[in-house]
Amino acid sequence: MIGFNERLQIIYGVVDSKKGLDPVVLDLRGLTSELDAFFICHGTSSRHVKAVTEAIQEKLIEIGEKPLFIEGLNEGTWVLMDCGDVGIHIFEEKTRNYYQLEELWSHAPLMDLAAFNSASDSIT
What we know:
Elements: H1 4-17, E1 21-27, E2 37-43, H2 46-62, E3 69-71, E4 78-82, E5 86-92, H3 93-99, H4 101-104, H5 113-123
Parallel strand pairs: 2-5
Antiparallel strand pairs: 1-2, 3-4, 4-5
């Protein structure tokens, strides 16, 4: 089993390689007992959202970290992947703008993606 930060690095690396847009990681530790983080990004279309989702799923399975469930893949406007301690939200841009999860969870600190960016090069 991989650690929390390594899981986020892997997710970031896959999203980056699939050209997922505007990734954000909200640190939920201390705010909820359900999850430690939300990873949020968006794609340019439902096809792009599905491609990013499927790539993340494939990579996680490859490293033995199969998501607990994936919801919304058929529609492709908002996909939620439950990875235990990390919830991954992959939106179409207009859907992300409508629901504004970052605003809803504005009290959650943002995690530094620069650390994930440099580490993801060696992981993906």
